[in-house]
Amino acid sequence: MTGLGTHVDGPVWIPTAPPSWETYLAPTLQPVPVIPVIGLVLAVLYLAGVIRVWATGRRWSPWATLSFLTGCAVLVVVMGAGVEGYGLEMFSVFMFQQLTLMMAIPPLLVLGRPGTLLLRAVPHHGPGRAVLVAARWGLRSGAGRVLLHPALMIPVFLLCFYALYFSSLAGRLLSTWTGHLGLELLFLVSGILFTVPVLSRDPLPSPQGHLGRAADMFIEMPTHAFFGVIVMMSTTPMVSAFTHPPASWGIDVLADQVTAGGLAWSYGELPALIILLIIFVRWRKDESRQTAAADRRTLHDDPELDAYNAYLEHLAERDQRL
């Protein structure tokens, strides 16, 4: 099924009505809704894990549950509502989807602590044992260390913006359904792999300190900001796939491109700032706990204080003998 007049080859549906909030959010699935199905499956698996943990009498954070399920819901809406159809023809809508997949959905999923839930919910016998063995192997493997290392993920972020749009690569990939879907999956996976090292409290192969996590965010934040400014200043269409929207939509291609650049500059910064704020709040809390623990150790294990207390006890015993 192919939308009338669309440049995309493959099973896609293009809306006929001009874009509006109502049409963006209309529950209109594409003929092959791969990513919405992924979102629903993730939500079902997560809920099954939460129910199992609760059934064993252990607690699980309702805030973590809410965060993960919200991420799944946003994934289903952004990729399963009418916005996906408009994203096939409009640069601004596709940029909104990309930023959401890379910057908004991954933090919600990661804050749900799915790795910890997996380790607690999966049974330690039968097929569950194989899952646990595979998960532990991934944590200890060199591949896990490489995939979650900032030296890899920051270049991937650069690839998803500069190398993709400042070449003919975006135009070629977005002209086919498989290329369009592949890019959306790449955005989601790269966003998750970048967010895990800086935000996750699940077991990790090489956990970073708070300073390293903050540094990663400061390096990443200008990436889409500079990209957005360049796109806004461009006087010619950058992506051939977005140069022929349906005439009935009344879209000015260059104005739509300026909107896409503005989204990259503004919308991309907000999730990054929130992540940075979470890092600093956690940093302060951990330092406060460490300071309190050090004070307790000093109070109970100070040799000079112990000697002084022993001296007082000796004086008290002597007074009793007298």
Class by helix and strand content? mainly alpha
**Which range best describes the helical content: under 10%, 10-25%, 25-40%, 40-55%, 55-70% or over 70%?**
over 70%
Query: Rg from C-alpha positions?
Result: 26 Å
Arithmetic mean pLDDT: 84
Can you give me a brief rundown of this structure?
By secondary structure, the chain is mostly helical. Helix content is 73%, strand content 0%.
Task: Describe the protein in words.
- It is a single chain.
- The protein is mainly alpha-helical and 322 residues long.
- 73% of the residues lie in helices and 0% in strands.
- It has 15 helices and no strands.
- The protein has helices at 21-24, 34-55, 62-80, 82-87, 91-111, 114-121, 127-140, 142-147, 150-165, 169-173, 177-199, 210-233, 253-266, 269-301, 303-321.
- The longest helix has 33 residues, at 269-301.
- It is elongated and about 100 Å long.
- 30% of the residues are buried.
